[in-house]
Amino acid sequence: MVTVPLHQTVRALTPVFTVAIYRYCFSSIYDKGTYISLAPVILGVILASYGDLYATLLGFSMTLIGTLLAAVKTVATNRLQTAGLHFGALELLYRMSPIACVQSLVMAYFCGEIQQFQDFAAVPGQFRLQEVMILLVNGVIAFALNVASFETNRCAGALTMTIAANVKQVLTVVLSISIWRIQVGLMNACGIVITLIGGAWYGRVEVMGKGKGVASAAKMEEGEVEKGETNAPKGQS
Asked: Is the pTM of this model over 0.85?
């Protein structure tokens, strides 16, 4: 339905959807430097994953909807932790995990995975302690990943999470090159470099923006203190 390069290209647009959600749903506007820094991150992923671009209409539509939902999920996770309810990562997992479990079981049933698991476990000697430990370790890793992801989202923000996801895509390609000796073309290599530079640029813009915000808050606080001292009644001699 969709080739991997096209899927990665569409997924690279997640930061754009995130910015649009904040702009039109919460009236949040970023600095010009932030908008500019998004360009190399997105363009770099597109170049890094460039290849056979093919998709059916249904496949492209599903990929586009999935990208939009990924942005919605990231923004919703951030808002649940920073505005209104102020859920912590563990509390959010506590409330969402049962729903996700039911959803996964339903999908597994209709996709035939539950029957496949029953057939696998029915064979004597197949479902051993080793398989149980692998499933247990996988669950622990998934739990730790969710906690880390939610905490990072709360501290860094939804847009930063989508930028990090784009950088992760090219780092996965870099690991594939180093481990499996996969050959990449010049355009793909340029895309990797551009994405890494764009990610560093975005990080610098965010740090500078937060530094200016802290400095402005400190100046306002200092001004309030000086104003209070000026308006304070003088002692009688």
From this structure: no
Residue 225 sits at the vertex; the CA angle it makes with 219 and 228, to the nearest 5 degrees, is 140
Using the CB atoms, write b or e for 198-226: b if 16+ within 10 Å. bbebbbebbeeeeeeeeeeeeeeeeeeee
Distance CA 98, CA 75 (A): 21
Q: For 110-123, what is the mean pLDDT?
A: 88
Comparing C-alpha atoms, which of 15, 54, 44 is closest to residue 173?
Answer: 44
- Give me 63's structure tokens: 């990929």
Element (H, E) at 19: helix 14-25
The span from the CA of 185 to the CA of 177, in Å, is: 12
Which residues, in sequence order, are CB contacts of 78 under 8 Å at separation 6+? 153, 154, 157, 158, 161
Q: How confident is the model at residue 141 (pLDDT cuts 50, 70, 90)?
A: very high
pLDDT digits (tens, 9 = 90+) for 13-50: 999 999 999 999 998 888 888 899 999 999 999 998 88
Closest CA to 202 of 62, 69, 45: 45
Residue 229 pLDDT: 55
Distance CA(94)–CA(85), nearest Å, equals 14
Helix or strand (DSSP H, E) at 226: helix 186-231
Residue 86's identity, in one-letter code, is: H
| pLDDT tens track for 173-210 | 888 888 887 778 888 889 999 999 999 999 999 888 87
Nearest to 7 by CA among 47, 44, 60: 60
